[in-house]
Design brief:
mainly alpha
Length: 115
């Protein structure tokens, strides 16, 4: 009888540990998902916008007629932006000109809101 009780107790512990491991694995998956969530993506996009704006401002110092023209500026600085991205994040895909223009447009709007 003692052996049967011990076997049942061990089986119970085995099943409880399996459930706990499953919960722990689920928690880790949730943690990884949150690490790639909207707040992280927004922060990453904000950093790219700052870098794109810095490149655009350098371009505008040399070519003042393009100031305030995000689409035309994006066409001119696309190569520099994508080289900068490749240097900072090897293996990333290059940004399209329209995406650079959109980031530049948002960065300019954010810069105007600052006091």
């Amino acid at each position: 009888m003692c052996d049967v009780f011990q076997a049942m107790r061990l089986y119970h512990l085995y099943s409880v540990v399996g459930e706990l491991n499953e919960l722990a694995a689920s928690g880790e998956a949730s943690k990884k998902g949150r690490a790639k969530g909207p707040p992280v993506k927004k922060e990453r996009a904000r950093k790219w916008r700052e870098l794109i704006l810095a490149i655009a401002q350098k371009f505008w110092e040399q070519n003042p007629r393009w100031v305030g023209q995000p689409v035309n500026t994006a066409k001119k600085i696309a190569q520099a932006v994508n080289q900068m991205r490749a240097a900072q994040q090897p293996g990333c895909e290059p940004l399209a000109t329209k995406t650079i223009a959109d980031h530049l447009r948002v960065a300019l709007a954010e810069a105007q809101q600052l006091p």
